[in-house]
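Thread: quick sanity check before group meeting

JM: Hey all, I'm pulling together slides for Thursday and realized we never actually wrote out the predicted structure for the chain we discussed last week. Dropping the sequence here so it's in one place. If anyone has concerns about the input, flag it before I start.
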Amino acid sequence: MSFWGATVITNLLSAIPYIGGALVEWIWGGFSVDNATLTRFFTFHFLLPFIIAAMMLLHLLFLHETGSNNPLGLNSGTDKIQFHPYFTYKDFLGATVMIILLLQLALFAPALLGDPENFTPANPLVTPPHIKPEWYFLFAYAILRSIPNKLGGVLALALSVAALLLLPFIHTSTQRTNAFRPATQLLFWSLAAN
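JM (edit): ok, ran it. Output follows.
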């Protein structure tokens, strides 16, 4: 299934006019998903945690310089406590418990949460009959399936993600809380209860 997932996701780039086909072949390292693609994806997935860790450290540096803001918009120093040692120990304990649980899962039951279809060898000549994405990609799958034009579907998918990224810039209130917005609270709890 991973073979077909990589094929479908990288083929989305072929919808880009003029350069799409060349871009897909460049990412694949050939004319189809092959060993070069596997090496590139493995390298990307190996480097991604280090990139995320560097961005987290940069975020903590900026947070240390400017300080965090209060969601109510009130900046008062009366209730502040130091991050270290109180939250440092709490975060260290939580990270330690999580790492221990992840190590137990990875070392003693590595295939527990995996898809059984991933153990069948990939056959590029036969597409599996029941391909469907995981639940966290179903929104993208629904957008792509609902628009018959390939470029239109890819643009709609990109716009749906861009709309989520633009939400913080649309919010212009000085208060960053939902405490005084009953309509937003109702929408949130109806989504949470769904």
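AS: nice. The first helix runs from residue 2 to 11. The chain has a mean pLDDT of 89.
JM: adding both to the slides.
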